[in-house]
Specification:
- The structure holds two protein chains of two kinds.
- By secondary structure, chain A is an alpha+beta fold.
- Chain A folds into three domains: about 160 residues, no CATH class; about 50 residues, RNA polymerase II/Efflux pump adaptor protein, barrel-sandwich hybrid domain (OB fold (Dihydrolipoamide Acetyltransferase, E2P), Beta Barrel), CATH 2.40.50; about 90 residues, Nucleic acid-binding proteins (OB fold (Dihydrolipoamide Acetyltransferase, E2P), Beta Barrel).
- Chain A contains eight helices and 16 strands.
- In chain A, strands 7-8-9-11-10 form a five-stranded mixed β-barrel. A four-stranded mixed beta sheet of chain A has the order 1-5-6-2, with no helix packed on it. In chain A, strands 13-16-15-14 form a four-stranded antiparallel beta sheet, covered by helices on one side.
- The longest helix of chain A is centred in the C-terminal third of the chain and has 20 residues.
- In chain B, strand 8 and strand 9 form a beta hairpin.
- The longest helix of chain B has about 35 residues.
- By secondary structure, chain B is an alpha+beta fold.
- Chain B has one domain: Ribosomal Protein S5, domain 2.
- In chain B, strands 1-2-3-5-4 form a five-stranded mixed beta sheet. In chain B, strands 6, 7, 8, 9 and 10 form a five-stranded antiparallel beta sheet that branches.
- The radius of gyration of chain B is 18 Å and the shape is globular.
- Chain B contains four helices and ten strands; from the N terminus they run E-E-E-E-H-E-H-E-E-H-E-E-E-H.
- Chain B is about 30% helix and about 30% strand.
- The chains are: A alpha+beta, B alpha+beta.
- Chains A and B meet through helix 1 of A and strand 3, helix 2, strand 8 and helix 4 of B.
């Protein structure tokens, strides 16, 4: 019987070496828009530009405050670093953990610079009823979300001092149970139209939070109902049917999806549904066992696949 | 200035011909720790310091400041528990970092810098400051300017030695640790020319010396900082090339 736990020596830089070899970027010319702290960013030919993260104006010149690559999107100029904590923006879908409950609000940890607040008045009450929250609601806050639970929410607003307010004013947001959470650097996640992905063929629900927390869980009937916007009372009846814990096959699929996300994180590749599915399918095609997905062999195969994809994309 | 200086042991680089104004071999490894927001290990031949940066993250209620970020520094010596000297070094390092990080950008957060001395062979404070700078860059913490730190020792026969090792520090009658901010002028050369500021961020001295010695050490360490700045930028572009092109 094979060992349940495998121990491998830690080789720092092994993943980077993989990427270098696979994608052939040994002698790649360094992007000319790399800047260091204190370097001046040229703004020639740009009237009325918007100053983004990682920059500040000193003596009328635009200067970088972090080391990274300069990105220009329309009129916005900002510096993108390799590592950074999540910067909250209004409208982002995020996954967070409840840290504590304090007077009419939950404090939720988004792995960002500050904890965010989810006010009692911003929570979706069961039954979809809109009413004024009273003292009894305040005492029953723990029945909604307890400390330590994972929730999905949307960012309502970001105040001037950086504090963030969340809301869960829709049936699709709320408590997350029976699934796996993977932490990914927020830089690898792009803002897209949809952050909730239901893969019905596999029976998996995927939530890609903009703050770098990715949630994979078995698909439940009440979640599907919430997605398609069914009447909340019907959704509640579906929930009682689907309250059973998931079986082993479902959990295995969820673990595979989570491992696919981990593979993308190790190789520093962007995380979005198409790339996750590509890794998942590569694992299924090669009959890679669940626990072998993080081995160097499979990582090298994924890098090769990405290299092929890039060269074919360039040829087009 | 002759290369023969009292103090260094037979195996040291000075005995092997290192000039008084020459620095030791520099090595910088970035992103060595998984759980820290940023980390770096800075080695100056015999001295090595590991720096980890956690933040900006939510500060504890008692420590938070409503208008600015709070910088906390923890300096752990190579062996033994923290003593009063280590606490004093923490204050010095914190003062320098507060001068470099725009604290008003992140109110109510805390930026914690943990420095662990792995090997001690002279110029440890400079090594720690350089490691902290590299770790802050790795963490993506915004800074007004980069800085470099170099130590200088004054021997009993009035000679100034740059980047002294442990033996030279002990034999010296005074030593100075200067920290200078620097930036790169990209218009002068393709990779930019290092411009070290004429004003220092920090100066920590030990021993007795005259004002002339202090000013000479100021000038000498400023030249040394230029070399550290060039090395730092080179090491940063290399690590960016590897990770950023993936």
């Amino acid at each position: 019987m094979s060992a349940a736990v495998r121990v491998r020596p830690h080789q720092p830089g092994a993943d980077i070496a993989l990427i270098e070899c696979g994608l052939g970027v040994h002698d790649a010319p360094l992007s000319t828009t790399f800047v260091c702290v204190g370097d001046e960013i040229s703004t020639e030919g740009e009237e009325g530009f918007l100053r983004g993260h990682g920059t500040q104006v000193v003596d009328g010149k635009l200067v970088a405050t972090v080391c990274g690559v300069v990105e220009r999107v329309n009129k916005l100029i900002y510096v993108k670093t390799l590592n950074s904590r999540y910067n909250a923006e209004q409208g982002d879908v995020v996954v967070g953990r409840v840290a504590e409950i304090s007077g009419k609000a939950w404090r939720v940890d988004l792995k960002s610079r500050q904890e965010s607040k989810l006010l009692l008045s911003a929570v979706h009450l069961p039954g979809g009823v809109q009413r004024r929250r009273n003292a009894e609601d305040e005492l029953n806050m723990r029945s909604f979300f307890r400390e330590g639970e994972l929730i999905s929410a949307e960012i309502q607003s970001v105040h001037g001092d950086g504090s963030v307010a969340l809301h869960t004013r829709s049936a699709k947001y709320g408590k997350l149970t029976y699934g796996q959470l993977v932490e990914v650097p927020p830089n690898l996640i792009k803002r897209q139209k949809q952050h909730f992905h239901t893969l019905e063929a596999l029976g998996v629900e995927l939530i890609i939070g903009c703050n770098g927390l990715v949630w994979a869980a078995p698909l439940r009937a009440d979640r599907v109902a919430a997605e398609i916007g069914m009447d909340p009372s019907d959704a509640a009846s579906e929930a009682t049917v689907a309250a059973l814990p998931p079986n082993k096959a479902q959990l295995e699929v969820v673990c595979r999806m989570a491992n696919a996300v981990r593979v993308l994180t190790r190789l520093y590749m962007p995380v979005y549904p198409a790339s996750i599915m590509a890794v998942y399918e590569a694992a299924m095609d090669d009959n890679v066992e669940l626990r072998d997905m993080l081995e160097p062999d499979f990582l090298a195969a994924v890098v090769r696949q990405e290299a092929q994809r890039r060269s074919s994309a360039m040829q087009e | 200035m002759s290369a023969d200086a009292p103090g260094p042991g037979p195996g040291s680089s000075r005995a092997r011909g290192r000039l008084p104004g020459q620095l030791r071999t520099l090595v910088c490894e970035r992103s060595v720790l998984d759980r820290a927001d940023g980390s770096a290990r800075w080695t100056q031949e015999g001295s090595s310091v590991l720096a980890a940066v956690y933040g900006p993250r939510q500060a504890k209620l008692q420590k938070e400041d409503a208008e600015r970020a709070v910088v906390e520094v923890v300096y752990k010596p190579c062996s033994g528990p923290q003593g009063h000297l280590d606490r004093s070094l923490e204050l010095e390092i914190r003062g320098i970092l507060e001068g470099v990080i725009p604290l008003g950008m992140h109110p109510r957060t805390s930026i914690m810098v943990v420095l662990q001395v792995l090997q001690e062979d002279g110029s440890v404070l400079s090594c720690a400051l350089n490691a902290a700078c590299a770790a802050l860059v790795d963490a993506g913490v915004p800074m007004n300017t980069m800085y470099a730190s170099v130590t200088c020792a004054l021997t009993p026969d009035e000679q100034l030695l740059l980047d002294p090792d442990a033996g030279e520090e002990q034999a010296a009658k005074a030593r100075f640790c200067f920290t200078f901010p620097h930036h790169f002028d990209l218009t002068k050369a393709v990779d930019g020319e290092a411009v070290v500021s004429t004003s220092a961020l920090g100066c920590r001295s030990h021993g007795s010396f005259s004002s002339d010695h202090l000013l000479d050490a100021f000038q000498l360490t400023r030249l040394g900082c230029e070399r550290v700045a060039i090395f730092g930028r080179l090491s940063l572009t290399k690590s960016f090339q590897a990770a950023g092109s993936a």
